[in-house]
Amino acid sequence: MNHSQDIGPGGMPEDRKLYIVDSINDLNKLNLCPAGSQHLFSLEEKIPDVGTNSGNGSHSLFFMGLIIVLIVSLALVSFVIFLIVQTGNKMDDVSRRLTAEGKDIDDLKKINSLIVKRLNQLDAEQN
Fold it and tell me: Which residues span the membrane (predicted)?
């Protein structure tokens, strides 16, 4: 038996090739394997089309949407921080005014009590 005749050009023995082809044919006969599935990976799956970028398009669309959402979120957060700072400044102004008005009210009470005392003294002198 010549050993070089048993091995095919792919480096696989001929009887092994026949066994594989027989097994695929048996699967086709039993309808367990759909027609055309003898090539596990077709050339279309191995070589992607240059003209179609459906996967990349959806990914880039997703990332553009994500970037837009992040920019809008950043703008809203900045606006909220600005409002918090402005509200804090207004509260400081109001508390300063209340403190100043509180002092004015105390001064008015003192002046009122002095006027009442003076009026009582004048009323006592007239009687």
Answer: 61-85
Tokens 């606006």 locate to: 79
Alpha-carbon gap, residue 69 to 63, rounded angstroms = 10
Tens-place pLDDT, residues 8-37:
555 666 777 777 777 777 777 776 545 555
- Give the whole-angstrom CA distance, residue 79 versus residue 67: 18
- How far apart, in whole angstroms, are the C-alpha atoms of residue 15 and residue 21? 10
- For 57, half-sphere exposure in the C-beta direction (CA atoms, 13 angstrom radius) is 4
| Sign of the four-CA dihedral 121, 122, 123, 125 | positive
- Using DSSP's 3-state secondary structure scheme, residue 26 falls into helix
Query: Average pLDDT for residues 39-49, to the nearest whole number?
Result: 48
Q: How many angstroms separate the Cα of 77 from the Cα of each of 63, 65, 89?
A: 21, 18, 18
Two tokens, residue 31: 């309808």
22, 31 Cβ separation under 8 angstroms: no
What CA–CA distance (Å, rounded) separates 64 from 72? 12
**Alpha-carbon span 111 to 118, nearest angstrom:** 11
